[in-house]
Amino acid sequence: MTRLLASRLAQIAATLAILSFCAFALIALMPGDPIEVAIAGDPRLTSEDAQRLRALHGLDRPFHERYLAWAGGLVRGEFGYSRLFAQPVAALLGPALLSTLALAGSALLIALLLGVALGALAASRPRAAPGVDAIAVMGQAMPTFWLGILLIILFAVTLGWLPAGGAAEAGAGLTYLILPVATLAIAHLAAYARHSAASLEATLTEPWIRTARARGASEHVVLVRHAFPNAALPVLQIAALDAGALAGGALVTETVFARPGMGKLLYDAVMGNDTNLALVALLLVALVTMLATLGADLAQRLLDPRLRER
Amino acid sequence: MRLRLGLLLLGLLAVAAAAAPLVADALGHDPFAPDLLARFEPPSARHPLGTDDLGRDILTRLLYGARVSLAVGLAAALAAAFIGTAAGLVAAWRGGTADALVMRFADFMLALPALPLLVLLAAADPARIGLPGRGEAAGDVLRIVVILALFGWVGVARLARAAALATFSRDHVRAARALGASEGRILRRHVLPALLPPVAVATALAVAGAILAESTLSFLGLGISPPAPSWGNMLANAQELVFSAPWAAVWPGLAIMATVAACTLVADGLRRRGS
Fold first, then answer.
1. Which H or E run contains A81?
2. Predicted confidence (pLDDT) per residue in B64-104, tens digit
3. Which of A12, A149, A195 would best serve as a mutation to test chain B binding (most B beta carbons within 10 A)?
């Protein structure tokens, strides 16, 4: 277990190192270096000034020197400054990360519960199966941002029950969370419904289920006590993948609902040419994604004794 | 049943995309020309689906958008299928270092958060390295196809590798090898045909994924730039219009959903036929 954890953490560190290099190289391709932006913003800036500024910020140094200086700073915990928000990057990341974790975590939980419930419905009531299947296919085919817009039109514009976006100052945070969580949960629910239905259907044909029925166990007991624990594993596997995907996948939902999370921070940084913030945010999202996947893997190991042996 | 339904839907969409100029002519609309006196018109006989914020007919833009969205989705998925099949086949055939390299790279891609990376990649400007820049229609399509293929090949490669490994250990391949068939002949005649069913399923799913990803990037303003219509960029400003013209937000999303659902149905149908 310890060795597994150590090797997985080493993998994560290596992945982050490679990603940081590739992303840093890529940013060099993005339109406009910071000095060009400064020149566009201030017509009095002369070319000597630009040169001086480039030298001051080290932009005239070769690529590998710039990368090493930047990556060294990250390792020492110096995340630099965000031009777009005029704040230290470190101060922006904490609240954004918390907001995303709250959104993605509650969405994952709701998607899992509702998805498995739908799957159980399809598996135990064959007449409901086509309906659940249709819901799942449509749910997976819907673009998240469109679903978000439709929910805004229905609940914020037409009915006026919920706010169309933004985040609460304090206190009434829950009403701002409902629509984004619903959007993200519906988008992810379909996969759980399909997989838990398939997994339960397969489990219900096993001999021990027949034995339980022959023993006179009620359908409810058969489903909950006998079929469920065995059918849960493939579903948990999907959840393990999803836990990681959600951290980054919340980007669209956060943008649609103007929620100040990691995804929105990254998107704003990319659109506003704030390269440092964009890079640090990307690395943090990647780290959270991989840690979430790792955590889900470990949880799965705890639940499934067969995996623990290896 | 699923396969037929999916193919029927896709066929209808393809016909609609092909008929875009005919519909535009019949209605007498130019999907690119703004008409500021006819903004936000509700559906009518003249504008069956209403008009958008620049007074352009939504139906004709939807049909022209179908051309862009379907072309991008198909091209990206085919490129991903080609790269993925080649990578998976080489990994299974050569084994050893080649296999480790391909699979490590695939694991690397799978471990990363796809959407943030797509956003970052799509924001890079290819004009800096001498390619057509952002905002030019042909350049936009090429850029998005390349980026989506870069992410799409991984799934295909894993499936193709698994299927190829299984096939290499089958008796008919070993028999062919014992009879002295060349490696090229074994790959072409015996292994490649066995890869087709799983690759077809993966490709159908890749089309669905590519269309969703393209629409998302275009919605975020990083994909196909206006005035060229794509289903995603038609929704980009629909969000600001939820109060004034909510119907403008409905149709492009429905089109995306129908297309992606059709691709999923085709993939499901192919998988069931295979097993």
1. strand A81-82
2. 888 888 999 999 999 999 999 999 999 888 888 888 898 88
3. A149
Helix (H) or strand (E) holding A87: strand A87-88
**In a 10 Å sphere around its CB, with 0-12 CB exposed, 13-18 middle and 19+ buried, how is residue B117 labelled?**
buried
pLDDT of residue A172: 54
Q: Are strands A87-88 and A81-82 parallel, antiparallel or unpaired?
A: antiparallel
Strand partners, B57: B51
- Residue with token string 């596997």: A237
Pull the structure tokens for residue A234. Answer: 């493939």
How would you class A306 by CB atoms within 10 Å of its CB: exposed for 0-12, middle for 13-18, buried for 19 or more?
exposed
A267 contacts chain B (CB < 8 A)? yes
Decide if B147 contacts B121 (C-beta within 8 A).
Answer: yes
Give B-chain residues touching A278 at CB under 8 angstroms: 120
- Residues of B within 8 A of A158 (CB-CB) are 246
> A145, A271, A287: which to substitute to probe chain B, counting the most B Cβ within 10 Å?
A145
**Closest Cβ opposite residue B264 in set A140, A158, A247:** A140
